[in-house]
Design goal:
This protein is an alpha/beta fold. Helix content is about 40%, strand content about 15%. It has 2 domains: about 160 residues, NAD(P)-binding Rossmann-like Domain (Rossmann fold, 3-Layer(aba) Sandwich); about 120 residues, no CATH class. β1, α1 and β2 form a beta-alpha-beta unit. α2 runs parallel beside α3.
Length: about 350
Amino acid sequence: MTKTALVVGASGIIGSATANLLAEQGWTVHGLARRPVERAGVQPVGADLQDVAATAEALRDINPDAVFITTWLRQDSEAENIRVNSAMVRNLLDGLPKPTRPRHVALVTGLKHYLGPFEAYGKGSLPQTPFREEQGRLDVENFYYAQEDEVFAAAARDDFTWSVHRPHTVIGLAVGNAMNMGTTLAVYATLCRKTGRPFTFPGSAAQWSGLTDMTDAGQLAHHLLWATQTEAAHDEAFNVVNGDVFRWKWMWGRIADWFGIEAAPFDGIVRPLERQMAADAGPWREIAIRAGLAEPDLARLASPWHTDADLGRPIEVVTDMSKSRRLGFTGYQPTDDAFFALFERLRADRLIP
């Protein structure tokens, strides 16, 4: 029988990649978003997860074999992040019909599980790297923990299995996404090429010289499907990254080469993109109009604040995937290839010239 999936946040970087993979694999896919978009092989479901009644109504006739939670709403404080995002997960799982057959719920969180929330990012007592799943929760409030607790409580009540997936920074395609380093760097490189500005690394010396890793959205989608279909992966939490490590002093030059520009020498000074790109809305609109691009609104493509949060960290961040490897997940994606594939898609979709 054809299996049915509900992808929550289907218009985002992770959700769209997951929905596409499931459709390719022959699943019946329902894609939930506040403003769903038409996509081949995906049945759109419109719902605001903050609205209890509307969520239940939208989900009334959907009885999925698997649920993939790939969405969150950024708030002004971690207390509000916890209140809003835990309620969204609770409303979703309460709104679904009670399972009549085995069901699996996969929740995507991230490395802030180990690093702490944005307002306390990388501060206090952190576990040593590489981060491993057996390292416990930090002694700080974190909406990822609140989301997990909602999944655990619903699983105990409704008797479904679960998995938690912790990617590092995700590389993928989605317009209007709040955390989008790949597209942000593509837009920044385009602005540097068109205006003659130096392509300047915005982050810290620790990130420039230290080892790091990232997660391609396709790699993450395959990991979500693997955990759903692998009994040994049920009721477990996993890190998920591409499988390689790199230093930004190498990757920055690789990205510059792709765009046909030179990488500026790094002098150890943090120059945040949020400041560098503060006045770029007008120049980007001019570039977009001149080149006939599909999105002239810079704010819908670039998220400098999030890229600054990642590249400005004063600590090395490396992720261990031994747990997944031991259970049979063998996916691998070179990170520079992931960037280049994204840039090609952005160009093909007329999002960069």
